[in-house]
Write a structure and sequence with these properties.
There is one protein chain. The protein folds into two domains: about 60 residues, no CATH class; about 140 residues, Nucleotidyltransferase, domain 5 (2-Layer Sandwich), CATH 3.30.420.10. It starts with 12 loop residues before the first helix and ends with a helix. With about 260 residues, it is α/β, with parallel strands linked by helices. Helix 6 links the parallel strand 5 and strand 6. Strands 1, 2, 3, 4, 5 and 6 form a six-stranded mixed β-sheet that branches. The longest helix has 21 residues. Helix content is about 40%, strand content about 15%. The chain has eight helices and six strands, in the order ααααββββαβαβαα.
């Protein structure tokens, strides 16, 4: 029985009851599992929120190598994404929306990498050497498709893979809003190949300074939600796949909060 002091990042009993069914049942073969799935998830949430390195997790959690093993295994088998997608549908239903969206917003954010290495590139427009977090989100701001790739890949090129994947997963999706970086041939490509309307929301030239742009602010807010987690303040992980898993984890945490304490 766990007797450690609870951390603010721990899922509550009510939150754990929501996600517990998605984890695999204990195997009858091999040695009995020493550490509970809940404790492993608590440690993974703690690391995501605080940004500490795996080996610097508090000693009252299970051994960090065990935690990372399950974190990586559940990334490999797609469990994090599966849990997030299930919670996303529950959030949409709670908000009175159809489980499958018909409209979305696309955008990318260039983020610096560290000396950890891995794929990276230079975004000349943002003057950032690192990676891009490319998101396609619904009108509530919850990601539909996530892709992390080198920052030197142009938005229009990165969007091809994102939109094609969305077309396969969400058959009702018919409209996507985007900024001027996605204009040009991509608009025609989306219409001809995916039967998808890509609407460019342009900034008015006579507006000076900061101005909230229609529709585009939704995905900007999503980037802010992700950035609240210190493990995502930069691209610390060597593998882009880990960054994608961390985005799913961040949205799992947000979805649980929404489901337990619905927004007004």
């Amino acid at each position: 029985m766990n007797t450690r002091k609870a951390y603010s990042t721990d899922p509550t009993d009510a939150e754990w009851e929501i996600i517990m069914p998605y984890f695999p049942s204990p195997s009858r073969e091999g040695h009995p599992r020493v550490h509970s799935y809940r404790e492993l998830v608590c440690a993974i949430f703690y690391r995501l929120r605080t940004g500490c390195q795996w080996e610097y997790l508090p000693n009252d959690f299970p051994p960090f190598k065990t935690i990372y093993h399950y974190y990586r295994q559940w990334r490999w088998n797609g469990l994090w994404e599966k849990i997030y997608q299930a919670l996303h549908q529950k959030v949409r239903l709670q908000e009175g929306r159809d489980p499958e969206p018909t409209a979305a917003i696309i955008d990318s954010q260039s983020v610096k990498t560290t000396e950890a290495g891995g794929e990276r590139g230079y975004d000349a427009g943002k003057k950032v050497n690192g990676r891009k977090r490319h998101l396609l989100v619904d009108t509530l701001g919850f990601p539909l498709v996530v892709k992390v790739h080198p920052a030197n890949i142009q938005d229009r090129d990165g969007a091809v893979e994102l939109l094609a994947k969305a077309e396969n997963k969400f058959s009702k999706l018919s409209l996507v809003w985007a900024d001027g970086g996605y204009s040009g041939k991509l608009v025609e490509w989306a219409k001809d190949n995916l039967d998808l309307k890509l609407e460019i929301v342009k900034r008015t030239d006579d507006i000076k300074g900061f101005k909230v742009q229609p529709r585009r602010w939704v995905v900007e807010r999503t980037h802010s939600w992700i950035g609240r987690n210190r493990a995502m303040s930069k691209e610390y992980d060597r593998l882009p796949e880990n960054s994608e898993a961390n985005i799913h984890l961040a949205m799992i945490r947000l979805s649980l909060k929404r489901l337990i304490k619905p927004s007004p």
